[in-house]
Amino acid sequence: MYEIKAYVREVMAEHVVDALAKVKGVASIAVVSLGEFGHLVGDESPLEKVKMVKLEIDVATDDVAGEVVELIVRTGRTQEGHPGDGKVLVSRLVRAVRIDDGATDESALQPASNQRFS
């Protein structure tokens, strides 16, 4: 099980989320607005500000994690790539529990069979 955090340019976020929504094994995507996210351009430059969002995606398997990372890199890159396009971080999850039905681990990262939104 993996948690994938991606920092992408705000202008690219909708494009990335639309692509991720088509991946089997991605049950949900959290989109967190950030005021600004800084990055360095060279050793001597000041911290430059770029409007970014943070995406958080939890997945059950290595294969899905690899697909998600590759997709974020491909769809989040501006043209040929520019400093400040973002970053993807992958962490292992020790445990997952879905609150509504108590499903655990890999099962908790899949859509619930009785999933409904109100």
Overview in brief:
This is P-II family nitrogen regulator. This protein is α+β, with helices and mostly antiparallel strands and 118 residues long.
Question: Mind sketching the topology for me?
Answer:
Layout: E1 2-9, H1 10-20, E2 30-33, E3 37-39, E4 48-50, E5 52-59, H2 62-76, E6 86-92, H3 105-108
Antiparallel strand pairs: 1-5, 1-6, 2-5, 3-4
Q: What this model shows, in words?
A:
By secondary structure, the protein is an alpha+beta fold. The protein has helices spanning 10-20, 62-76, 105-108; strands at 2-9, 30-33, 37-39, 48-50, 52-59, 86-92. The protein has one domain (2-108): Alpha-Beta Plaits, CATH 3.30.70. Strands 2-5-1-6 form a four-stranded antiparallel β-sheet. A two-stranded antiparallel sheet has the order 3-4. Helix 1 runs antiparallel to helix 2 (62-76). The longest helix is centred in the middle third of the chain and has 15 residues, at 62-76. It is elongated, with a radius of gyration of 16 Å. The model has no long low-confidence stretch (mean pLDDT 87).
